[in-house]
Amino acid sequence: MADKIMIVDDEPEIADLIEVYLKSENYAVTKFYSAAKALEAIQTTVFDLAILDIMLPDINGFELCQRIREKHTYPIIMLTAKDEETDKITGLVLGADDYVTKPFRPLELIARVKAQLRRYKQYGLVAPADDNDSESRTIMGHGALVLNVKTHECHLDNRPLSLTPTEFDILRILLERKGLVVSAEEIFHTIWQDEYYNKANNTITVHIRHLREKMNDTVDKPQYIKTIWGVGYKIGG
Predict the structure, then answer these.
(1) What is the pLDDT of residue 127?
(2) Which terminus of the chain has fewer Cβ atoms in its 10 Å neighbourhood, N or C?
(3) Which pLDDT score is estimated for 124?
(4) What φ, ψ does residue 77 adopt, rounded to 5°?
């Protein structure tokens, strides 16, 4: 079954262009020219990925991203018309998984779509390992927290946690380096393969906060994610 992708952009020529390229890769595409129509659709349709323009005629893409994140964890790619640090960081803070700056090359956007779907659905997150080590690298944990990279599932006290792709990756990175401190810069670069912006630390901080909320963890007495002030974060140790 083809992956379902939602495009929300009030410029028909851009939405049509993206649709042509996505359909050439055999994706099922649904277009919306307003946030309101998109919000109606997500009540009845399960998508695999959303591409959201920031500038929309009713509510902006940032708010739409937030509304989607209230119920859904599939990847969100933001389209921003300005190559500004603030727009990028705002989108990532609000739950987006990636961003593409207009004007963009369609093939670059398709590559981003494929990468995000691979993270979310194909679980291509573990490097090859020998037979003796493969299980330990696929299933990681600390205490009652268990992360299965192969099935992209996370459980805490035998209760499934619904994580976004970015939240899952942050947890994976911390568990892979269990007992060691990982800086916000390293987390940011590992996930987005991009330059570390001055305000990027806030992006990681917000995602860590969301993880703690879902895990019922606290900053003062953390059972899992510990903040090492001025250095980074760690699990265990």
Answers:
(1) 36
(2) N
(3) 40
(4) -110, 125
Residue 229, phi then psi, degrees to nearest 5: -55, 130
Six token digits for residue 104: 């963009």
Contact between 20 and 10 (Cβ < 8 Å): no
**φ, ψ of residue 223 in degrees (nearest 5):** -90, -20
What pLDDT score was predicted for residue 133?
Answer: 44
CA distances to 144, 151, 163, 215 from 236, in Å: 12, 23, 20, 15
CA 105 to each of CA 19, 91, 98: distance values in angstroms, whole numbers, following the listed order: 13, 20, 15
Strand partners, 141: 146
Report pLDDT for 123: 46
Task: Give the whole-angstrom CA distance, residue 202 versus residue 93.
Answer: 7
Per DSSP (E only), the strands in 33-152 are 49-53, 76-80, 98-101, 139-142, 145-148
Alpha-helical (H) ranges within 94-130 are: 106-117
How far does the chain reach from its first CA to its final CA, in angstroms?
44
Residues 6+ apart with CB under 8 A from 83: 101
pLDDT along the chain (237 residues), means of 10: 94 96 97 96 94 93 93 91 72 85 91 87 43 58 91 90 90 94 90 68 85 92 92 91
Give the Cα-Cα-Cα angle 55, 58, 47 (nearest 5 degrees).
75
**pTM confidence score:** 0.72
Q: At what angle do helices 200-215 and 165-176 cross, to 10 degrees?
A: 90
